Amino acid sequence: MFNLFSENTRIAFGSIKSQLLRTILTVLIIGLGIWALVGILAAVAVLESKVTGSFASMGSNTFTISRYDFSEQLGRNDNEARVNAVINYPQAKEFQDKYTFPASSVSLSFTAAGNAEVKYESKKTDPEITIVGADEFFLPNSGLEVTSGRNFNNFDISNNNYVCVLGSDFEKGLFKDVNPIDKIVSVRGARFRVIGVLKERGSTFGNRQDLRLIIPIQVARSMFTAPNIDYEIKVMSGNRDMLPAAVDEATLTMRRVRKLNPVEKDNFGIERSDELLKELLSQTAYLNIAAWVIGIITVFGSSIALMNIMLVSVTERTREIGVRKSLGAKRSTIAMQFFTETLIISIMGGIVGMLLGLATGYGAALLFDTPFPIPWMAMFAALVTIVVVTLFSGSYPAVKASKLDPIEALRHE
Domain segments of the chain: what residues? Predict the structure, then answer.
């Protein structure tokens, strides 16, 4: 059996070499279908990994109160969107004072500037630094970790100390080869002592989180006085099982703060990190469906092309088939010969497509600055596709070749 397979493989490679251009075009057609399938599935896996990593660090026991509920806005028509009033500082502070749910911590923060310039001695950054005003609960409630130095404490916030916590990118630029802790940086002429550096987070939806400089909230309010500043409230519940009750209590408290009557709808959004993650991941399901549809259509086209090529090969090699059958070759032997040739071409196309697909996924991982998860599902799908293409494209030509009359085949010119 092994000798027969070895002989069929040798004959198949000989036939492939004799029709090299036609074989290359067929391999590329099959590879295109596999690439479409594996590439999109791998890219979607990278996107899901990025989204999951960004939200998982916040934990499943946190929620955010903001001007809008972005989880409800996903997939909604712009005409349906409502304009909510900003959450100003008095409202945010009133919520913090009135929210007394057990074992919960409330942080207040706002984006003070999005294009600031930070200086250290004679060096300065590009005007692309985001300045965030926050309190001592902001880092733990946001899932941010300090790799060196420390977080703000109550003394820093209550005394409006001019201290700051830097994003990790500062160590690659402004403080390259220099320990930034206890160094003095200046923003708009104000001097801040660096007390901590954050762990690298990467970019999320174009937001470069490692280019942030966080300062005490009251200091930020005194330096940046733009009108209609929108504050964000982050709440962490000490008990995950109590999170639904904590969210309900926060809703009631915020409705009182916003002075809503019982029949009015909420004019603010409460987003649980786990629910928003599920909503975002549900959107990627459409990309998976698109990958399968595109892959199936392309693979179907490549299967037809491969079948036509094998039928042409059967016609061109009719005399060869007649010689082999006259020498005693069985119908199953002839069928296996052409089926083996189809399998080899399919495997070659599958390898090309998988390599291109993995390269696409790896490129997506570099683009999103996230580790590249091995797309096992995509690779399994490619393997199944190769088998299907081989069975669909190789069976009919192989059977047709095996049924040729050896006498008529020998007469063929």
Answer: 2-54+279-411, 85-267
